[in-house]
Fold these 4 entries.
Entry 1:
Amino acid sequence: MTLVELELKRIAHGLMRREDNGHILQTTGLVNEAFIKLVDQDRVQWQNRKHFYGIASTIMRRVLLNYHRDLNRVKRGGVAVRVSLSNVDKLASEKSVDIIALEDALNELEILDERKCRVVELRYYGGLSVQETSEALDISTITVMRDWDFARAWLARRLSNGN
């Protein structure tokens, strides 16, 4: 159990590095939220360790996404600009918009090509190497690299012009 917790914290730490400094969740809180949701997964046929961590990273991503969506809800202040008291010149909500735009783009990519979307989830959110992603998806490392290159280019284009 300790090894699982350490790996989940490593994944969560990687995700939290991309978040604003004033984020309400800490790494341990994100792990706890994900673990509660993982325990409720009764329909999943766990294949191996990488499959477990891939699903865990996806759940963590969704927890963070829900947090960002809640921040932007009108009843919680909507798109009001949040300013950190310790560093007034930086706006705290800049990354919130980015993560929601990225999630929307990933949803579009999933419709276009589900495998490429899974490669992005495992590599970007899960922190898996090319080899680990290859094993988790049961595809060659060359295919992972090709899908990764395509997905990054497609997402960059989609996020840069909104189309």
Note: Residues 2-161 form one domain.
Entry 2:
Amino acid sequence: MTGELFGIKRFAVHDGPGIRCTAFLKGCPLRCIWCHNPEGVRKGTELGYLPLQCIRCGDCVTQCPHDVIRLDCNGAAINRTRCTRCGVCADGCPAGALFVKGRTLTAAELIEECSKEEVFFQSTGGGITLSGGDPLFQPEFTAEVLRMAKGKGYHTAVETCLYATKDVLDALIELPDLWIVDLKIWDDKEHQKLTGQTNQQILRNYERLIDAGKPLMTRIPIIPGCTDSKENLVSLGQYIAKQNPGSVVEPMFYNPLAESKYKNYDMPYSLFDALPYTAAQQQRFRAIIATAGINVI
């Protein structure tokens, strides 16, 4: 069983208990306009470009087998509509200005990579977290990795938006030791507008996790002009408190560093003028969510 990944983060401390190895799987059913990992949204590789690293040698122009790169005053200009993301140009770039994000691994290869951190797993109660993208977008691979990790005694966690069919959730529901779930927008029309999908399947799956008694942490991304209204946070807080009393909620605050990723991949981005929240603003958002009577960290 193979899967597509775009990164492995070692010594991760925010993706579950203890020190962890977090694997980022490619592919996601949502298209959130604020996505902090745009390189993980599509399956397959992504071709990135770092203009400040480019030496304008022109090697990429001559090596590209599809004639989709030219040089202009800003460096390499890539015709993204014709680019097949084959990576030939990146392999031949002497400055490393062109790079490919995404690779294919077997479940065993991923476990072997993560096992290099086993001493930290054992000493801190850590383990392996599957993130993305969204691991439920590659359910068979996710299931095999989780089973192999459990076989080695590692704690396992899955970070997901929970947009998946009932069959997919049924196949995975018993495997992780911890589910980490994003709930983004309460109003379904707004959810469709800003993520490209309805939230109804997400909420049904969320309730199924609770009914099954699965260990669950809920995260709410706080994004300027998208999810940060008092109405949205109060509604989500009340829903979580009703469905899962005594649960823990972790706000995930907007990070402007994602902006550079969109530029590297020539992807459209609508939050270029957004600023990070101050400490006072972050505390106010926590207080709003906490009015529902839930624990906010």
Note: The radius of gyration is 20 Å.
Entry 3:
Amino acid sequence: MEEEKYSKAVSEIRGVLARFQPGQHIYDEIVGNRDEVLARYRPMCSPEHIPGLTREEFTSFLYFENNHHWSGLHRTGLSAASDMDTLRQALVILLDENRVIPERFEEALRMVKGFGKATATAVLTIAYPDRYGVWNNTSEGALCQVNLWPGFEKSESVGRRYEQGNSLLVRLSADLEIDLYSLMISISVPFWR
């Protein structure tokens, strides 16, 4: 990535973040509830808990009124919960930090119908909020808006795409001094208004 392009985008995003503050409905709904959401769902997304994960726990996470962040996870995620044994296996793989992210990301997504990149990266963000950001249509669109989303070859695997996109998200998080949970919503909502 060209450093000049990156610096320009970071400057633009800083301007957006300066206008995204406590007291605004969207900020309060999403960022204001971050600690509560992490307290509720981080234990559920821990590798130790996954073998006993219930359908009710997983499906509750999929609804905006509970996760306060992602509005569409239930649309496909509910079908992922129809086979909890396979979903648990996929989550164990996804959360296994002893394996590289492209490999485990792809394997987990292939295992379960309805378990797509948005749900998988939301789980990663909750489980490891300092290491993984969310990749969904909104976050990709916001990064495209500021010309930061990487250009991929058609042959590039979904796992490699997430690895590269996540590296960008982690860098932005550090440079903007904002956590990964809050990063994409705070910059994407103002761009879509």
Note: The radius of gyration is 16 Å.
Entry 4:
Amino acid sequence: MTHGPTIAQVRYRASVFCLVSWNVLADSYIQRRFYPHSPRSILMRGARTKAIVEHLAACPADLACLQEIEPPLVTALENSGIWHIEYAPKHGKPDGVALLARRHVTVADVTTVAFADGSGHVALLATVHDAEASCRVATTHLRWDPPETPYARRWAVREASELLGLLGATERVVLCGDLNIEPADAVYDELLGAGLVDAYAAAPAPTANPNGRAKRIDHILCGAGLAATALPVLPIDDFTPLPSRALPSDHVPIGARITA
């Protein structure tokens, strides 16, 4: 079977935003038992750093939003000389979220939001613009909830609600990241109810396969004042080894061309 080009193989002109979102898998969270099909060598601390830097350098992103990024990877990306980087560490945790912008993209009004629920999780908000387009971008990593958690007690419910309150009008907003929710989730419905549109609604594809089940938990959601064209993603199933030498994370990157 043949597949269309992956994100790393597609390029668009710089005057239109190309945004990529990727959970790059923090070394601090790796336990061998969670990745039985991955080479042991790739699970060693720091073993994936160079590959992640190279993967991002080769991708078409004008803007890259990363989750589970740790300070050594931030430093490696800074040393590449390609990106302007904004980094927001989680509270009491070894990782955080980051916004990477190519040099032709201006990043302003950067704000770090520490969620009020005490989870330690954060969101990073910024206004980004180049010569022809501008919008407000928010990236986050919502805290995972065990499946049996009552709706009112879920981390994702509180964090999504707080973030929507801070964003206000969503017409020119892009919200992306590892949201730890699938499209059947009520939190997903809440986000769409706030006026956001799923860039991958017409072409859904799994983005991770934790516990041997491929599912879509990474999202790019855009306001009605923006047009988003989803980029093709690397196809995975329940048995795809992640991370691997071909893809150095347990999530695949997703992306969209954003037109204002």
Note: Helices lie at 49-58, 71-79, 155-167, 186-193.
